[in-house]
Design goal:
alpha/beta, Rossmann fold, Helicase, Ruva Protein, domain 3
């Protein structure tokens, strides 16, 4: 690993370019080179892999990924930082830098990002997509959740994110961190926190701890979702009222498509007491719930 991501090097490059890290873009640069290596190692890259990196930064991780993967599609929103990053990996012929927002309307993945990774995966025999990134905190949730809704489906996602978000994604039922995001991710993936990281390994230092999260999408789990988009939306609607009893939360979520009698029938079929709460149900139970709602509703 070169010294290009050390604190002194970054500060020199930023000073020479007369720019500063941008809080609005969630710029916190990882300056512990061993952790940069750990991120790349966890992804287990090969020449078959097309890597999507959101948040190019100064290109230190980009260079490492390019040396191990078939191609890297890296996205940088900061128009002042992108030229500096491009100079850092100028000799790497298997890197595509997109100077834009990775998201459209701050929610869905940008079509240009999707089309670029589709093209690059198609260029490689047996190509597959992996996300490997030091994700800006402000886009981590939509990037991770929406990548599970596009083709090609990712085979792995390794990302540095806020510790609190990593805990939500990996949370178990009946815990305070268990949420609609937990259900959406765990219904399709296995997820594991690889390392908790203190603020001191970043520049500028964030106010919270971070984590390296290893997400491994599972096709066998994905096949259980008859209609992923319907499942995603229904679970989100139910968890809007997570402290309500399930019957009440479900009635609010499916109105006006299902009435009280149909909701009661769904709960009876699943042998769920009306006083149970959504946060007590496993992803598997919520998949069954979703399937029954779809079968009885007017959607």
């Amino acid at each position: 690993m070169s010294e290009r991501q050390t604190l002194s090097y970054l500060q020199q490059r930023f000073e020479a370019a007369r720019i500063q890290p941008q809080t609005k873009f969630g710029q916190n640069f990882l300056i512990d080179l061993n952790l940069v290596e750990l991120i790349a190692d966890t992804a287990q890259l090969s020449e078959r892999d097309v890597v999507l990196e959101v948040g190019t930064g100064m290109g230190s991780l980009t260079n490492l990924l390019a040396a191990r993967a078939g191609h890297v599609v890296t996205v940088e929103i900061d128009k002042y930082l992108a030229p500096l990053a491009r100079a850092e990996f100028a000799s790497a012929e298997n890197v595509t830098l997109l100077e834009q927002d990775a998201l459209r309307n701050k929610n869905r993945l940008h079509p240009e990002v999707i089309s670029t990774i589709q093209q690059r995966v198609g260029d490689i025999s047996g190509g597959r997509l992996k996300l490997v990134a030091n994700l800006p905190y402000n886009v981590a949730t939509p990037i991770l959740s929406n990548l599970l809704d596009v083709e090609p489906w990712p085979t792995r996602m390794v990302a540095t994110i806020q510790k609190e978000l990593a805990q939500r994604i990996t949370a178990r039922p009946r815990t305070k961190d268990y949420s609609a995001l937990s259900v959406w991710m765990q219904a399709q993936c296995k997820a594991e926190i690889v390392r908790i990281m203190p603020p001191s390994v970043f520049w500028p230092r964030p106010k919270v701890e971070s984590a390296i999260l290893d997400i491994r999408p599972q096709k066998v789990l994905r096949k259980q979702l008859v209609d992923p988009s319907f499942f995603h939306q229904l679970v989100r609607n139910i968890f809007l009222h997570r402290r309500k009893f399930l019957r009440s939360a479900l009635l609010s979520a499916v109105k006006p498509h299902l009435g009280k009698a149909e909701v009661d029938q769904v709960l009876q079929t699943l042998e769920l007491d009306a006083s149970v709460r959504a946060e007590q149900l496993t992803p598997g139970q919520l998949i069954e719930l979703c399937d029954l709602v779809r079968a009885q509703s007017t959607w």
